[in-house]
Structures are given as structure tokens and as C-alpha cells.
Amino acid sequence: MSKEVYEYYCIIEEPVVDIEALRVKVMKNGIPNNNKLRAKIWKLLLRYYRAEQKTWVSSEETYLMIYRKQKEMYYEEKKKEGEEKQDEKEMKNKKLARIIDKDLARTNDGENKEEYNNALRRVLNILSNMQGGIPYVQGLNIIANVFYHVFLDASDAATKEFAEVSTLFCMYNLLTNIRDWFDSTKDMTNTGIRAAMGRVMYCVKQKNQRLANTINTLIDPSYYLFRWLTLLGASELPMDVTIKMWDKMFCEIRGMRYLFAFLASMILEIECLIGNFELTLNLLQHYPIKDFDRIDLTARVILRDVMRVNPARIDLNEKPVGSIHPLPSSISSLHDSP
């Protein structure tokens, strides 16, 4: 065990984990390339686990019970697909399943693709249909893929099902905070996707006004920032870079400040490559820089220099970016005080 990994285990194996100390360490140093460790840290940062370590086993068992119940309902719905008479909900679910299947066909090209995608299919269908869930939109398969990749790598044959469980509920906890980004009726509100795009461009403007003006003149931010934000960078960056970025993003998911800073730094890093409309759009839709440390360094400068300058424009008080909807009662009980 490396010194870095050992230092993290010293924090997370305390009877009551100091979440603030964990956040500070992750934001400063990142997480070592160890997905067993990363999986535990993600669960703590995303409130899948409570700080009290003694509750983790019972929480896992409860999550598994809820997941299996939801999975039974999912398979019952699939059985009805072959029946002649289907109500409106069943027809809607069938259409949703086709959309998810189409997206998953492009998600994973590795070994055991069918088994892997079947797991993602269950997670995405359940997430869309469970009480308080997140309606499926194109691209959520990419977010699910990153979660499942990490949790599956942290599992063994005996705990494989927990990779699906962890993916579902960590994804739920994360997306609940940015729910309004996926709701077109909230586009023009201060919690909607346009406000989020505005925060990214505000960061760019504060560091390089000329670049911000040039890009905004050439291209509407919605042509690229919508995808960058709603897919949390996962569509533009390699898996390893996405995971490193998420490590730090999860340190503060209510304000999403690190995500805004990171995406702004992605724009700042390609200043010298900006050209005409076609060239610039191609750059932004096929991002060329894959060096996490380079982008992260600029992002941390933005966090320091920009986001502390104007707290009225950037959420420094951890005000939720999206509407906070209550968890289903069976899930929310896991987060209540003992």
C-alpha cells in the first residue's frame, strides 16, 4: 500500500469520518489511482454513506433491498411489453427502453459488452421510473458508464451486484442537485442550464475577456457548453481524466464550483487554437487537450481568483444548483440522523 493510499485510509477508517478533512485532501491532492479506495471516497462525498462507519453495512443492505425491489418492477414491466394491451405508462416505458438501448449501443466496446450494458440498462431504466427519479435524457448513459466503471472495478464476483446499486444511488444523489439542468421549463431560471453556462463563461471572461468575447461572437455557448455541463465533461474527456475531475467535483456538488472552473479552464487552454467558426466549433466539440494536471491547475487558479471575488454571481454559499427534491422515503431514511 502506497503512502498516499495509506493516508486516505487513515481518514476513512475512523469510526466517524471527518468529511471536511476528506474534501480538503481530495481537492488538494486528488485520489490515488485505486478504485477500491475511490469507490469508498465517492460514496462518502455523495452521501451514499454517512460519516459514521458503523452504519455502512446496514446502508448497503438497505440500498440493495430497494434496488432489488425496483429491479423486480422493471422485469415485470418488460414482461408486459409482449402483451397486446398496454396502457400509456407501459407504452412510454417501452419507448424509453428503446432510446436507452440505442444510446447503450455506443457506450461500451470492451469485453463482456452485453453483460456490462445490461447492468447499465437496468440502472438507467430504474433511475427514470423510480419515485423521485431523474427522467432519462440522451447522455445519461455516459454518466452511468463512468460510475459503473469505477464501482465494478472496485468489486469482486461476490459484490458485483453492489456496483449497480452504488451506480444507481450515487447517480441519483448527484443528479438531484442539478435536476433543473435537465428540465427545459427551468432553462431561464437561476438554477437552469443557461445560468450554469453563464457561470462558466463568467469565469472565462474574468480571466480573459478578449477570448470570452471572441468565442461568444463566433459560437452560441449552447452549441458545446450544454453537453459539457449536462454530461459533466464525460463526453469530451478520456475516462481517466473524467474520473480525476469527478474526484474533485464531488467535493462540492451543491454549488458545482469546481465543474464550472474546470470547464472554463478547458476553454482558456485552447485560446491559441481559436480560428473561424468551423474550426472553433470543431475544437469545442472534439476537445483536443487530455492533460488533467494542466486543466486542473488553471481551474484551481479560477477557484482562487474568480469565484472568491464575486460571491453574488458565483454560488460560494453552497446554495444548490438544482432544486433539491426529497428522496423516496425508503432512501431518505438512510440520511437521517440516528
TrEMBL record:
Leader peptide range in chain numbering: none
GO process terms (BP): intracellular protein transport
One Pfam family, short name: RabGAP-TBC
Higher taxonomy: Eukaryota, Amoebozoa, Evosea, Archamoebae, Mastigamoebida
Rab-GAP TBC domain residues: 32-253
MF terms (GO), sorted A to Z: GTPase activator activity
Species this protein is from: Entamoeba histolytica
Protein name, entry field: Tbc domain containing protein
PANTHER family linked: TBC1 DOMAIN FAMILY MEMBER 13, TBC1 DOMAIN FAMILY MEMBER GTPASE-ACTIVATING PROTEIN
Gene3D superfamilies noted in UniProt: putative rabgap domain of human tbc1 domain family member 14 like domains (1.10.8.270), Ypt/Rab-GAP domain of gyp1p, domain 3 (1.10.472.80)
Coiled coil: none
